[in-house]
Amino acid sequence: MEIPQIDRSNYLKGLLITAKKNQHLTDKEIEIIKKFSDRLGFSRDFFEEVINNLLINKYISEEPIKFSNIRIAISFIEDALRLTLADELFSVSEIQWLRETAKINSIAPGWIDKKLKVLKLKPRKPSGAEFALYSLI
Cα–Cα 20 to 30 A to 98, which of 23, 116, 117, 129? Predict the structure, then answer.
């Protein structure tokens, strides 16, 4: 599936917002976001600049993100849930933001809770092949 550039940008931005929600950025989160940045076609310099300023950048809008396609939105939310679980610092604000994003993308309210239960049962060491985005591109 060809993912439009705006959705690629929003995918990465959404992961960054999710990671920023608990005001703590772990090495594991950085590693995961870097994989997405590479896969989505962003340069290493861009990624490093964004990561280095993420927690202090108060100008990143945290409005829920509307994707052009529900498949992309579902993929994003699944990957963002994996990101929230990867750092062992699970936060209610992360999940609330993802619920708001799901809502504006017409994803059933209970879907996040069901997906979260499934993901909590799996090992929290995503290899990369497990990321939902990789099945789209």
Answer: 129
Total count of domains within the chain: 1
Residue 20 half-sphere exposure, CB side, CA atoms within 13 Å? 20
Say how many Å lie between the first and final Cα of the chain, rounded. 6
Q: What is the residue range of 89's domain?
A: 5-135
Q: How far is CA 69 from the centre of its chain?
A: 16
Over residues 35-72, the pLDDT tens digits come to 999 999 999 999 999 999 988 888 888 999 999 999 99
Residue 117: DSSP 8-state: H
The Cα–Cα gap between 83 and 28 comes to: 9
Quote the pTM value.
0.91
Smallest Cα–Cα separation from 36: which of 24, 22, 18? Answer: 18
